[in-house]
């Protein structure tokens, strides 16, 4: 197959896989009330349809990326998409809430398999000078899916019932899964600025053990952390959430110690030794934490304080999603011309300015300042995503693209949960209303006046979180990666085909 044709198919598969995962989460949120009524489930049971999925995904992303590095991203991607399609169809046929929760956990496992592979395939297929635009297309598609998800979910649920939201992903997932197995892939070239080089790195990447002990420790740490972060907005800080955080810290500390002494660590030491890669992850964590915390605050204000329905509030936030889609290719151009450091610093300034504008905006549904704030947030965060993802993928050798992509996707699971937990804790401490978790009869957790008083300081706190990421952004490379000669060996972790 011609290299150009191969790159097009790889980009299509990567974008489709990423969109399927993004769309799945947003459409389910809209369908959950109908699911609860139809299956006679409790609120806590319905919440576990999301929580169980998030825990499974976050716990396994890095291991899934390592599997791709060893056995081939295309094969792991195919397994993930086909499994995702099968579990989606099974959920649509589930007879009870227990089946739905269990199958959602299984779906999270397959989602973890396919997500790092979408980046690993791009890293193997695209030369460094074209990689940023491919990542921008992928990021823009994710933004579009996130924006369309509530509309698609609402329409499907209203006309065909909640089961239809799980069927919508089956056909595309099956199609790209089968195509990934059927397409014959040429031997890849390592044309990026990876940290690993040479035949020895390639051979080590194919023969090294997976580091299952480290994988179990990291999975336990991330599962406890994500569960705690998801529970804090719902119940507040309780004995259970405190124990969960303690367990996450203990497991995380044990994992770090194991990484230092293990002969075959889960995350190769040279990956974390890359200052640019760790800086990009730190930038992404700070930006995603602040962004999703602000999105939670803005959405709560629109729906609970101004009493707008989900569609009306979604339309108010639509400028954010539009700017993520429109700004992604612009970010790729800026990245090539200005380099990652300047692009990331400008994007972080835009995100922080958007939060400051939102904090001081007129508290009305049609506030021009609020619309402008969402525009700035979308443009800034979209640029951060493109820049940080490009640095993560380019800085990894093709042998480590999967584990690097897994780290990036893990950050994108932890950051949003951390941001919502931080926003909820801030509002609870500031607002003189009800404590977290004490809402009555499904009503608002805080009074309108209490929330309005706490909204500004909470957004200022989130803007400060963005500022914490600025030193990391200043450590990014000053120039975009250029093409390098191919290594002595293929070094992609993908099996060669005749």
From TrEMBL:
Coiled coil: none annotated. PROSITE patterns: MFS. Residues 10-481 form the Major facilitator superfamily (MFS) profile domain. The chain crosses the membrane at residues 45-64, 76-99, 105-124, 131-152, 164-183, 210-230, 236-256, 277-302, 314-335, 342-361, 373-393, 414-436, 448-470. Residues 479-498 are annotated as: Disordered. It is a multi-pass membrane protein. Gene3D superfamilies: MFS general substrate transporter like domains, Multidrug resistance protein D. CDD domains: MFS_MMR_MDR_like (cd17321). Keywords: Membrane, Transmembrane, Transmembrane helix. The keyword Repeat does not apply. InterPro entries: MFS (IPR011701), MFS_dom (IPR020846), MFS_trans_sf (IPR036259). It is found in: Cell membrane. This is MFS transporter.
């Amino acid at each position: 197959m011609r290299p150009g044709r191969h790159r097009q198919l790889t980009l299509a598969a990567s974008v489709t896989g990423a969109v399927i995962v993004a769309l799945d989460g947003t459409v389910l949120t809209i369908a959950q009330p109908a699911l609860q009524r139809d299956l006679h489930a409790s609120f806590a049971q319905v919440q576990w349809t999301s929580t169980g999925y998030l825990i499974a995904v976050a716990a396994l992303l890095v291991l899934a990326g390592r599997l791709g590095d060893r056995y081939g991203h295309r094969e792991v991607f195919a397994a993930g998409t086909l499994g995702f399609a099968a579990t989606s169809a099974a959920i649509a046929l589930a007879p009870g809430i227990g089946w739905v929760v269990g199958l959602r956990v299984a779906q999270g496992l397959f989602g973890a398999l396919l997500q790092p592979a979408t980046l690993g395939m791009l890293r193997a297929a695209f030369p460094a000078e074209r990689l940023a635009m491919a990542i921008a297309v992928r990021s823009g598609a994710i933004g579009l899916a996130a924006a369309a998800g509530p509309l698609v979910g609402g329409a499907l649920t209203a006309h065909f019932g909640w089961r239809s939201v799980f069927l919508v992903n089956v056909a595309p997932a099956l199609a790209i899964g089968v195509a990934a197995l059927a397409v014959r892939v040429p031997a890849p070239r390592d044309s990026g600025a990876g940290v690993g080089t040479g035949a020895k790195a390639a051979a080590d990447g194919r023969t090294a053990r997976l580091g299952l002990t480290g994988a179990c420790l990291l999975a336990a740490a991330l599962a406890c952390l994500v569960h705690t972060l998801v529970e804090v907005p719902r119940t507040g800080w309780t004995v259970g959430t405190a124990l969960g955080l303690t367990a996450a810290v203990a497991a995380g500390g044990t994992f770090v110690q194991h990484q230092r002494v293990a002969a075959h660590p889960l995350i190769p030491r040279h990956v974390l030794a890359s200052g640019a890669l760790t800086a990009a992850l730190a930038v992404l964590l700070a930006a995603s934490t602040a962004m999703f915390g602000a999105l939670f605050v803005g959405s709560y204000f629109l729906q609970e304080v101004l009493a707008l329905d989900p569609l009306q509030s979604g339309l108010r936030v639509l400028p954010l999603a539009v700017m993520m889609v429109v700004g992604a290719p612009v970010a790729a151009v800026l990245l090539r011309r200005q380099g990652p450091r300047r692009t990331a610093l400008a994007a972080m300034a835009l995100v922080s300015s958007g939060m400051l504008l939102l904090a001081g905006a007129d508290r009305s549904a049609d506030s021009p300042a609020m619309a402008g704030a969402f525009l700035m947030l979308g443009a800034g965060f979209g640029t951060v995503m493109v820049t940080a993802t490009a640095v993560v993928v380019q800085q990894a050798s093709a042998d480590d693209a999967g584990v690097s992509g897994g780290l990036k996707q893990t950050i994108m699971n932890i950051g949003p949960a951390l941001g919502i937990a931080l926003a909820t804790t801030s509002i609870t401490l500031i607002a003189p209303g009800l404590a977290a978790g004490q809402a009555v009869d499904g009503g608002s957790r805080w009074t309108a006046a209490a929330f309005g008083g706490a909204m500004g300081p909470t957004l200022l706190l989130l803007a400060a979180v963005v500022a914490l990421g600025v030193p990391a952004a200043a450590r990014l490379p000053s120039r975009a990666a250029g093409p390098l000669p191919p290594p002595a060996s293929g070094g992609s972790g993908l099996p060669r085909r005749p």
